Amino acid sequence: MKTLAWILAAPLLASCQLWPAASVAAPVQAAATTRQVAPPWPAPADPLPGLRAAHIEDYLQLAGGSHIHAHLSVFYDGVPVTVPASLGMDPHGIFIAPLHTHTPTGVLHLQAPPGKTYTLGQIFAVWGVSLQGAAVFDHGEAVAEPQSYVVQDHHEVVVAYGTLPPRIPVEYNGWLCIDWSLCE
To answer: What pLDDT does 93 receive?
Structure first.
């Protein structure tokens, strides 16, 4: 009976490994599942390939360090794109990554060990969506290097593919920033 339990549990435990922390300066490799097609872009069914591509260690529980929130607004040809709920979360409840979403509102949760930061490139690698060709703004200011842009607490980050929206959101208003039009 113990052998049968081990055989059944082995695949579950294999997906539950922890990686050592990687340097923030490590280049972000595109996940094998990077999407460059029109949205919608749901959260990946298996977050591990994106986490590995982003050099992010998964956590069984989050503790200590910083807990920051930023808002991500994404547009495709001027139309808002939903940032999915449960990005960076194992659908089986085994782990939650230090970089994740809870709801489809665009609120990013970054729970980092002391001194650790996360980049926009890592967020998009976890999501499996390419940043190539996107215009990126932080509080309305253009971002020159989106892949290495370090996400900051209470910042409004806008990623636009193709035609820009009529108005670029410029401010993150905490939990009220559910609708991008409220974030100006």
So the answer is: 81
